[in-house]
Amino acid sequence: MTENKYDDSTFLQQDIKDLITENITLIGDSIYFKLDEKKVLTYTLDFLFNKWNYKYLSTIVVIEKEKGFVIKYIINSTTVKKSVIVEVFLDKTNPVFTSIDMIYPVASIFEKEINKKYGIIFEGNPETKNIISNYIEKSGEDS
Amino acid sequence: MIKKFPFIVNNISPDIALGNITFEFNLDGFSFQDLNFNFEYERKNRNRYLKGQSIKTATKLIPKLSFVQSHHFQEVFSLAVEDIYNVKIPDRAKILRMIILEIERISASLLFLSAISSSLGFETFRYWVLKDRENFLSVLKTFKKDENILNDIIVPGGIKKTIYNVEIERLNEFLEKYFERILLDYEKIFFKNISLISKTKNFGVFKKEILRKNNATGLLLRSCGIKFDLRKNAPYEMYKRVDFPIYNFEISDLYNRILSLYLEIKNSITIIKSSLKLLNETSDENILEIIDYEEKIGNRFSFKRIEGVNGELSIYLEVIDSKIEHIKFTSPSFINGLLLMNKLEGDYKLFDIPAIYSSLFIVPMEVYL
């Protein structure tokens, strides 16, 4: 029987390189990578959730920049010790993004908070709404 | 008839926070449905408050974010700063940090126990617990003499003050002669009390799948039979070198959640005792590694998590040349307060709410950070 030369996170890193992106960085105890297209996010998280047991969404961090928002999803596993940080960029001209509450139910309250602070709308999450259109709906005012 | 009620749980002093905790629910007969918590007061954006501050200034401000686990906040912040500056702290500082954290865990568990016992009508026990908590905090003061509890003893790079042999003996003596005996009394009077058991067994049950799905951590997760503790599964400081059992139960009912506090205290005592032994093994070396904040490090970030007193406490810290660019704490109170209470299944009455609410270990200040 051959000896297993890789620990979990080495396999994981190789898997991410093969299937998602080659540009991954190790920062402390975390594996960090950027996604060029926001469409890939759901697929990436779903892959990490099911294959690598990353079933715990620690937090969603939003950093406001001049042109848009940097959104970082930080997920953790009960089997692999390293955290994974997935970064996506969202343009300010169209601050609409996909909700991930189908994968992580807890994401709904994180997204709700982000919606209140930064106005980003997460499609599929009924609690995040366009604040202005919601106001018009409620007050009945319409220009 | 179904009617919406606002009901005030806690009226917090405006010095600490602005506003009330309220919750809305639909009332069907005497049973509530669709419960929603509002922590309206804490809408301040802490990131804006700390953004642009230097790390030195932030070190003094961080402990004020929580009145229950201020040292844990300092710890997780220090770990992130040390990670960013690639600093390795001395072993003695690591052990001292562990002792301080475990003392705080005991004091916090006693505080949670006082809240739960009060909501269940055990008023005498509540005052007893609070008195013992004060005694315990006075032990914490041996590290810091007569300084304020919220003072920053854990700092990036190590620890501010050392613990002397006389203080080690005093702490050991306090644990052995006083505190462990008191715990036996707690067991007889409270934990094995028939009236407590009949009130709390199979009451306020959260299903295992619900807790697992909704990011429950720490005590709550362990109370439903999932053996997970960050001190064991992803150890930081010197937790690798101390041995303690991870308890678990079959179902997460109110009684098991209360009992988990008791077991948590027992575990903390075990950890403190083995840490004190470890402390004797280390030589009297430096306890503070000085970090050069003048160094131009550019843009760096770090994510760290530790086992807080009520679950996983995490920080995301981004720094540009020793100035904080972005900081975000995520406390279990955020998830427990806003999500879990709504997932409660079963027929519960209005007067059941305070007991179940207090068993979720929510620290109001930590809900919005």
TrEMBL record, chain A:
Database matches in InterPro entries: NADH_quin_OxRdtase_su_C/D-like, NADH_UbQ_OxRdtase_30kDa_su
Segments forming domain NADH:ubiquinone oxidoreductase 30kDa subunit: 41-133
A Pfam match: Complex1_30kDa
Entry GO MF terms: NADH dehydrogenase (ubiquinone) activity
Record-given protein name: NADH-quinone oxidoreductase subunit C
Lineage: Bacteria, Bacteria division WOR-3
